[in-house]
Each structure stands twice: as C-alpha cells, then as structure tokens.
Amino acid sequence: MFTFLGGIALLILGYFVYGRFVERNFQIEPNRTTPAEALRDNLDFVPMSKQKNAIIELLNIAGTGPIFGPIMGALYGPVAYLWIIIGCIFAGAVHDYMIGMISLRNNGAHLPELTGRYLGNIVKHVVNIFAMLLLLLVGTVFVMSPASLIKLILPAGVPLIGIVIAIFIYYLISTILPIDKALGKVYPWFGAILIISTAAIGLRLIMVDHASMPELSLATLQNFHPDKLAIFPGMFFTISCGALSGFHATQAPMVSRTMTNEREGRYTFYGMMIAEGVIAMIWLAASLTLFDGKTLSEMIASGTPSVVVNEVSYLLLGSIFGTLAIMGVIVLPLSSGLSAFRSLRAILADYLNIKQDTMKKILAITLPLYAISFVLTFVDFQVLWRYFNWANQVTAVISLLVSTRYLYLKSRNYLITLIPSLFMLLAVVVYILSEPIGFRMSLSTTTYIVGFIITALIFALYWISGKRQKAALSPDDPLLNDQRPINVQASKQEI
C-alpha cells in the first residue's frame, strides 16, 4: 500500500512543483487573446469554461489506455509503478502541456501544422501520415474496447457487431456537432461517472485488500513477466496512456481552441495528465493485488483486457456497483474514440485544405474515415494494439522534438523535453527493430547497439538543423515571437 499511496502523492506533488517549473519555463501571457476568442466559428473554436475544458481534456486523452495499459503492464510486476510515476511527471505531463500551449500560441494548430512550422515541411508530411494513422487506429481500438465491455453487461444474445454499429452511429452524430454541444454538454456527466467509479475501486483496495498489495522493493525490482518479455522497450509501449502517449498531442490542440486564458494551461494539460496517471496507478494496483502473473496473462489472452476490468469491478465492488464501475470504464474509450475521429477530421481537412464550413464538406471527410475504421474492426485486437502502440510512441517522440525546438529557438530550458524525447526515440527504434511488426531482430546486445547508433544519427540531424534554423532567424521572426491570433473582425469576415 505504501508504494501505491506514495506514488499517488508523488504525482500530485509533481503537479504543484515540476508543473509550476514547466509553466514558468514556457512563460505564459495571461492577457494574450486566445484562438477561441479570435477565431470563434461555433464549431471547433468556441470559448468554454476552465472546468469543462479540463474534463474534456481528461476524457479525450484517457480512453482505455490508462486502464488496459496498466492491466497488461502488471505482468512486469511492481516495477511498472516507476514508469507511471516518473513517466507521467517528467515526460507525459510535460508533453501534453507543451503541445497544448504551443498550439494555443499558433491559432490552435494541430500537430502536423506545428511540425511543419518548427521542423520543416518534409517532416510535416511524415507527421500527417503518422497522426492520421494513429487516430484511425485509436478510433478503431476505442470502438472495439467499449463494445467488448458493453457486451459483458448485456444479455448473452446481443451480438457484438450490433454494439459496434451503435457506437459508430453515436460517433458520427457527435463528430459533426459543434464541440460545445457534442462534448461540452455530455462530458461533465461522463467525467462524474469516471471519477466516482475509479475512486471507489481505489478506496476499496486501500480499505480491504491493502495487505496483499505488492510493494516496490529491491526484491521486487525485477521482471516478473510470464513470457519474460524485456522491460525495455516492452513496458514503455504497454503502458503509454498514464505515462507518455503521443495520442495526447492530437487532442490537446482541440482544447487549445476552447480555452480563454493561458493560466488554465497547467491545470488543463499538465494536471489532467497527472489525473490520468492516478487512474493508471489504481488499475495497476488492482491487477497486481487480485491476480498472479499467470492468471492475469491467461485472462488477457482470452480476449481483451476488458475481461480483467470485468473481474476487478465485480470482485471489489459487487454486482451492482461493479456494473457502475464498468460503465465508468466504458465512458473513457467512448469519449476518446469520439475525440480521435473529431481530430482526424480536422487534421485531414487541414491537410486537404477543405474548410469545414458546410455539412456536405464535413461529411465528405467524415464518412470515408468511418468506413475504413469499420473494416479495421475485423482485424485481431492484439494486432491493432501493437500497431497503435508503436505509432502512438513515435508521435510522442515527434511532439517532444517539436517542443524542444520551440524552447531551443526561444533560448529557454529545452532539456525538459529533449531528455524524454531521446529516451523514447531509442525505445521506438529498438521496438521496430525487434518486434514482429518490424524487422524481427532478436532482442540482443547487438540490437540495442544498432538502436543507439540510429538514435544518435537522428538526433545529430535534428540538432544540426535546429542550429541552422536558429542562426537564420531575425529578431522579429514569428517563430521567436509566436504567431499572433488573427484579428477577430477579420476572422468573422472569413467565416
């Protein structure tokens, strides 16, 4: 119990101490006009309250990631606690804050546009492909995972395909509605269900099962995975949401378009990532406490981690409250799946230069995306999850490199994003070298050395291009002074 409670305490302390340091390093401007005010279009750019923005951000970034990831990460043993705590404070929350705030300073631009601005157009096209692939995979995974959970609490005769179709219909309707109607009205209720159900599981663990809760110690600081899968890079891909996730970089710009003051950034971006870390800690602790590695592995292999969610909920809370807890888990992928498709629509529309100002144009982008996703639902979930994991962490690396370049050009402390970006860059290189979805090299010393060399070469190119870019800037360059929001009146005329 001490590891569990101590870890949560460290996460909260990280928000107040390191989060404030990151905010000061960014140098917020509370009086600056935000895109929500300057570019208001009553669809994506709509001013909303701090609390609504925060709960939307939390539900957007969470999905089943901070639940399914820690459940599968529990196979590695208590060492997984370390990645959630350290990763969340020093990597994930910094990642979310920086991309959200850089987007806020650039008219609510999405990650591909930010990449083109700070890393060049060639990288922008690569990021466009990665971001769209990631969001398509996220949307599909977050159709299948809630569908499998819903099926568990419905009568046995209800077909899975029917639930999948119903979720797609809900997504379609919500994707084309204005953001304050699609998300602003519903998400506070979703958030309440999530918070109450997660807190109930955490309290139940502390009050009843704390004696059997595994602690992190020198004796348990080892790899307990039943299949002996290597901790590096495996654990850092298994647990992404709750520690560091590139998917968040596709969601933060959506909320940057609805914020009205830069003071909200630390609470909305950094703070909600810390909240996701707490959710991940609770589900990791529950999985470690209630099941041994072999049992947990067999349950996951029998379908998806939703089987574990079902067992944890009923074992800890009983049939009635357990069902409510499952509903709390269901709202996460439903909300993240919806926001994934909404972001995908916006990114693809920007890339194709199709302004989303009529229903015909919105549907022209949206319907084909849902059709492709529906086809992907017939692919094995575990295969989808592997591709999602890699694309997700590649996106995180790119986001951190964009953030590093932003800070470097402004002569601020860029190590806060450079260090986690290099660590995860090495992880994604080793992962693609060794995994079945990549080059299938055995995970040996040679593979790690090759991965280190490739990482060093990529970093060298990145660093040289950054020095050249900074040397070519004039003092009044927009990259140094940030792109000012477009005049409100001009925006109205465009719309």
List its salient traits.
495 residues; mainly alpha; Amino acid/polyamine transporter I; 22 helices
Task: Write a structural description.
This protein has 495 residues and is mainly alpha-helical. The chain has one domain: Amino acid/polyamine transporter I. Helix content is 74%, strand content 0%. The protein has helices spanning 2-16, 18-26, 35-38, 50-62, 65-73, 80-104, 111-119, 121-153, 160-175, 179-182, 187-207, 231-238, 247-256, 265-290, 293-301, 306-352, 359-376, 381-409, 415-434, 445-472, 478-481, 488-494. The protein is globular, with a radius of gyration of 22 Å. The termini are far apart. InterPro entries: CstA, CstA_N. Its main location: membrane.
**What is the annotated CATH architecture?**
Up-down Bundle
How do the SSEs run, as a string of H and E?
Answer: HHHHHHHHHHHHHHHHHHHHHH
Question: Which CATH first-tier class would you pick?
Answer: Mainly Alpha
Poorly predicted runs are 487-495
**Classification by helices and strands:** mainly alpha
Predict the CATH topology: Amino acid/polyamine transporter I
Global Rg: 22 Å
Detail the topology: elements first, then pairings:
Elements: H1 2-16, H2 18-26, H3 35-38, H4 50-62, H5 65-73, H6 80-104, H7 111-119, H8 121-153, H9 160-175, H10 179-182, H11 187-207, H12 231-238, H13 247-256, H14 265-290, H15 293-301, H16 306-352, H17 359-376, H18 381-409, H19 415-434, H20 445-472, H21 478-481, H22 488-494
